[in-house]
């Protein structure tokens, strides 16, 4: 593995499992010092301990991204422990599956999905930016990578979560322009369906949806981690403000309709 992140300091939110965990491990494997944060402190502890066991540099910190004070403390912890901050990965989210119909949606759940998914990322960016800008001024650049979702682009259900992810994509673009003069790049990945603990209760759904992915499978957390690491790395030094789908071709396909049109004709997908 190349070591693109030697001397690099990274803070990740919601990194106690799933995509956040895989991303923390990826950064650490490439030489970064990582602060693994999660609302559930014992999850963050487990990931940080596993990284250290493998010879990496990691600390854990319990942080709910909706708590502005806790977010500022987490950022301060990263900057003091490692002497600065080069990358923020905004990965924490909330998603309550929609009840039907829309008018029955519980207001508290609506606000919670928006609060964690959008406001949480904004709190983290605001707290981290002075430190990222300091790293950016050194000339080697700094980065925010936001974790969005294909839900921002198409109807896959979950109104509040999808709206929050769409707003996060917009915030990515506006921050990219405003932060560019300070040497901070801001980008977003949009995962399709990824096999994480979030799906534990619905694991059989992962097998059902795989057929809708042109590349023939759902994603693994490492697929998303690789894209996040790319956007944070010097390899992406001239990329800012982009939305990168990491979705096995889902957003450019329409396999269900394609199958329906070709049913009984003997024609293949191609
Ligand atoms: N798994 C998928 O299919 C999928 C698809 C599209 C997008 N995504 C996005 O990928 C990211 C990670 O998803 P995942 O499947 O790995 O999730 P996950 O549920 O497996 O893990 C999320 C982690 O975030 C933590 N968390 C929740 N609320 C928090 C808060 N308020 N503050 C701090 N931490 C909090 C949880 O404790 C948990 O450890 C999310 O942004 C999600 O929207 C996932």
Automatic annotation (TrEMBL):
Family of this protein: Belongs to the short-chain dehydrogenases/reductases (SDR) family.
Lineage: Bacteria, Bacillati, Actinomycetota, Actinomycetes, Kitasatosporales
InterPro entries the record matches: NAD(P)-bd_dom_sf, SDR_fam
Keywords from the named record: Oxidoreductase
Family matches, as Gene3D superfamilies: NAD(P)-binding Rossmann-like Domain
Organism of this sequence: Streptomyces albiaxialis
Top-level lineage group: Bacteria
Protein name: SDR family NAD(P)-dependent oxidoreductase
């Amino acid at each position: 593995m190349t070591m693109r992140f030697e001397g690099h300091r990274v803070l990740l939110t919601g990194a106690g499992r799933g995509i956040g965990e895989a991303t923390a491990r990826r950064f650490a494997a490439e030489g970064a010092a990582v602060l693994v944060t999660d609302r559930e402190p014992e999850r963050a502890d487990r990931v940080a301990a596993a990284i250290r066991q493998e010879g990496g540099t990691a600390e854990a910190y319990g942080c709910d991204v909706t708590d502005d004070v806790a977010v500022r403390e987490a950022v301060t912890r990263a900057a003091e422990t490692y002497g600065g901050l080069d990358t923020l990965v905004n990965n924490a989210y909330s998603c309550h599956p929609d009840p039907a119909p829309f008018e029955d949606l519980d207001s508290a759940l609506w606000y919670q999905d928006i609060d964690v998914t959008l406001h949480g990322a904004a709190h983290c960016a605001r707290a981290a930016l002075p430190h990222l800008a300091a790293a950016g001024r050194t000339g080697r650049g700094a980065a925010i990578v936001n974790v969005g979702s294909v839900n921002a682009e198409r109807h896959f259900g979950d109104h509040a979560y999808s709206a929050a992810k769409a707003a996060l994509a917009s915030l990515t673009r506006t921050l990219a322009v405003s932060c560019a003069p300070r040497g901070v790049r801001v980008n977003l990945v949009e995962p399709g369906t990824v096999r994480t603990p979030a799906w534990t209760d619905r694991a059989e759904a992962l097998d059902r949806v795989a057929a809708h992915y042109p590349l023939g499978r759902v994603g693994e957390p490492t697929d998303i981690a690789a894209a996040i690491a790319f956007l944070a790395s010097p390899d992406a030094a001239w990329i800012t403000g982009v939305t990168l789908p990491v979705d096995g071709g889902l957003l450019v396909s329409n396999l269900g309709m394609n199958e329906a049109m070709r049913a009984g004709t003997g024609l293949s997908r191609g």
